[in-house]
Design a protein that fits this description.
Helix content is 40%, strand content 19%. By secondary structure, it is of the alpha/beta class. A 6-stranded parallel β-sheet has the order 7-6-5-8-9-10, sandwiched between helices. It has a 5-stranded parallel β-sheet with strand order 4-3-2-1-11, sandwiched between helices. α2 links the parallel β2 and β3. The longest helix is centred in the last third of the chain and has 15 residues. It is elongated, with a radius of gyration of 21 Å. The mean pLDDT is 91.
């Protein structure tokens, strides 16, 4: 009822819409462009995207676009990747982070909304870091004793207990989103240790690249961005992950080259640049005079 009322009111004023919630398609009374940055490819989702009100769909990678086409979606689909804010370092936080670094430390960062163990209630595959902290990281530290892993994001109680007493892992914890770039600026390298296969982009990879941080990650749709930009190294096995991350940490020249590649690609993930692409897309699929009447983001 709420959505029906909201869109009914909107239809009195606006002629077009840009929406980020697929469920809202059923309530829209005007043509819409739909942003699908988190697709699930369900039967209901495909049905809603088949509405005549949908003039175009935006996804974050070509793999998602191809799968939608395979499932019968006929609306035009455009690819605009995940963006990142321009690096803006918080000087006070930067000083605090420098104080947490041991002399000679090589900092490897991993940013996620949550870090949990597999046993924790509600832990999903995306947030399970057992593989990283139990298998990958101990092998890296054996080869590179000065390396420390920093976990930025929420920490599950079970993981906190598990890491108690380990000095090779720094629990940074959750920080406000606007301070994440400052944390990234403290990293010598970053990791993407998820081994799940999905057709979604990962904001953290855009953030790593925007900050000029070399990335080592498993081969999957999200790390296509790393491969395309040369901002890091993509691997297929645990052994290769350990070996390549260790090599990056031991080679300042290689780290510098990967960081340069990332910085050179920063415009690909700059929200200011991506916003212009969205504006061009809206001009293409919604009449130009309707841009002034746009209903905005309804999520």
């Amino acid at each position: 009822m709420h959505n029906t009322y909201l869109f009914g009111r909107a239809a009195r004023t606006y002629r077009y819409g840009f929406i980020t919630n697929v469920q809202h398609i059923a309530h829209a009374r005007f043509p819409v462009v739909v942003d699908m940055d988190d697709p699930f490819f369900t039967t209901e989702e495909i049905s809603l995207l088949g509405s005549q009100r949908v003039t175009a769909i935006v996804v974050t990678n070509e793999s998602a676009a191809e799968h939608y086409r395979e499932l019968g979606v006929r609306a035009p689909i455009r690819v605009i990747g995940q963006g990142a804010s321009t690096l803006d370092v918080d000087a006070r936080l930067a000083r605090q982070l420098r104080q947490r670094r041991a002399p000679g430390e090589l900092t490897v960062g991993y940013v996620a909304a949550w870090h949990q163990t597999a046993e924790e209630a509600g832990a999903g595959t995306a947030y399970d870091v057992d593989h990283l902290v139990d298998e990958v990281w101990p092998a890296v530290v054996r080869a590179c004793p000065h390396a420390r892993l920093w976990l930025v994001g929420g920490i599950g109680a079970g993981l906190r207990r598990k890491l108690d007493g380990r000095d090779d892992i720094e629990i940074v914890g959750r920080v406000p989103q606007h301070q994440v770039p400052t944390c990234l600026d403290a990293f010598d390298a970053a990791v993407y240790p998820r081994r799940i296969q999905h057709r979604r982009a990962a904001v953290k990879l855009s953030e790593y690249i925007s900050a000029g941080v070399p990335v080592i990650g498993y081969r999957c749709v999200p790390t296509d961005l790393v491969t395309r930009t040369g901002a890091g190294i993509v691997v297929d096995t645990t052994e290769e992950f350990v070996r390549r991350l260790t090599h990056v940490l031991r080679s300042p020249a290689l780290r510098a080259q990967l960081a340069d590649n990332a910085r050179a690609a920063a415009s690909l993930v700059d929200w200011n640049v991506l916003a212009r692409r969205y504006a061009e897309l809206l001009d293409e699929f919604l009449p130009a005079r309707g841009r002034a009447d746009l209903a905005g983001v309804m999520s």
